[in-house]
């Protein structure tokens, strides 16, 4: 399993950065290779990705969510195995540090080769830069979900 870690500082308040991240169906706007995310309920999402010509579908479950602080998830089914946490840290009234830490288990030969070549790491870094551009250009969130999900 490979661990990928990337952080960006975005020029929006922590509430706006967090609120936007809870809009999972917007992820294709800034995540390369993500074709669609369908929010099934407050805890579950269905993902469709196409990376390197390989289409994958998988489901994720949010296992811990604390508004303006963190969202932790894991895959529950499908071809992809991953888990991760995105943290939101207030820098000041208009800046937020967003840090993503993700463990990914490459499944096929193409994914294993991409992992060895650092492609997964570069993709996550690019996704975080695109999130920064996306939220800063919007200036506000496209929606919000402020619920709390407790681990256990």
From TrEMBL:
Residues of the signal peptide: none
SUPFAM superfamilies in the record: Bet v1-like
InterPro entries the UniProt entry points to: COQ10_START, ORF3, START-like_dom_sf
Gene3D superfamilies assigned to the protein according to its UniProt record, in alphabetical order: 3.30.530.20
Domain Coenzyme Q-binding protein COQ10 START: 10-131
Pfam family, one: Polyketide_cyc
The protein's name in its UniProt record: Putative Cyclase
Organism of origin: Streptomyces viridochromogenes Tue57
């Amino acid at each position: 399993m490979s661990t990928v870690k990337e952080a960006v500082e975005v020029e929006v308040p922590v509430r706006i950065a967090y609120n936007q991240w809870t809009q999972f169906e917007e992820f294709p706007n800034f995540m390369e290779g993500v074709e669609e995310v369908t929010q099934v309920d407050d805890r579950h999402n269905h993902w469709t990705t196409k990376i390197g010509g390989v289409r994958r579908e998988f489901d994720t479950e949010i296992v811990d969510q604390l508004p303006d602080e963190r969202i932790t998830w894991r895959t529950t089914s499908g071809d992809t195995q991953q888990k991760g946490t995105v943290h939101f840290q207030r820098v000041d009234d208009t800046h937020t540090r967003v840090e993503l830490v993700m463990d990914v288990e490459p499944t096929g030969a193409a994914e294993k080769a991409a992992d060895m070549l650092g492609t997964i790491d570069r993709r996550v870094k690019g996704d975080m830069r695109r999130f920064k551009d996306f939220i800063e250009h919007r200036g506000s969130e496209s929606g919000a979900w402020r619920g709390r999900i407790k681990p256990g």
